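re: ur question from earlier - yeah i can do the single chain one, its not a big deal. heres the input i used so u can compare w yours
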Amino acid sequence: MPVSFLIGQPYCGHLDTLQTWAAVRAATLIAAPDHTQILSGDRRWLECWPEPNGVWVLPSLEHCFLRHANGLELIRRLLEKATSGALGRGLIGCDSWAWAYLQRIWAGAPTAPTTLQAFDGARLTELFARLAGERRGQQLRFCNARTGQDIIPARDRLEDADYDISTVMKELAGYCRGNVGTAWTYWRESLRTEPEHDDTRPPAPTASGDLASDEEAVVWVAAEIAEPRMPVESGEDTTLLLHALLIHNGKTPSILPELLPLPPSRIEALLLGLRAAGLAQWQGNLWRVAPGGYAATRAHLLSRGFLTDSF
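and the output i got, formated as tokens:
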């Protein structure tokens, strides 16, 4: 096939990855069409494609369509031309939720696109240890704030010892379904400067009962994941809105009324309520599902029988 597809879970950085790849390979970076071009099926966007003698990169396929009666013609035409070779050699990136939707409306979807391998407890442990670095010349050691047990020891211990992966890291990887972006969000939000105190038990020891050395600094990790919850009054309107945000990987407030059977005032009120609950965020002129609320949102949509991604 003349084009390859890279599918990424939300918050895992496939856009940045492809933009960097394009810069390194001197490939032509293709910007997505705007909403007006999509709704009008404006083929001039395709007619202005680079000459087929080079390599091009379209990093955000999810922004090339709208789930609207008039919002699919352009992307169908794009995919037909791209997979037939009419546009030359290229690399297309797409969010996993948009990809799940496009597989329903495009019969030519490839069955084996490339994607990032899921992160298990071992991979998360290694990644977080590398990202932690040092603090004022001290190596960081991460300990359970309730039990004091090592979750991630200092890097030199991690590299020198046959270290057992912490149950905390295994559970985090499972809870996030291998999504390194959401795992990183939950991990950062769980970090504490002090251990947790419980009147029914003695104070938590420091790192498996051993005092940290002068070369180490202890960071405490909350024993439980703090997860936003769906508002009690969540109904079909909330579910439809959250699904639209995930399918399109975020949208501006002006276009959301075109995608939902809801008036602008209702959409605005729902978005503000979801933001207050920690489930949505306003970032880069787009409303998106917040990373810390992604797991709860995905579970909610799945329980309501909505289309979800395959990750």
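The first strand starts at residue 3 and ends at 8. not sure if urs matches, ping me
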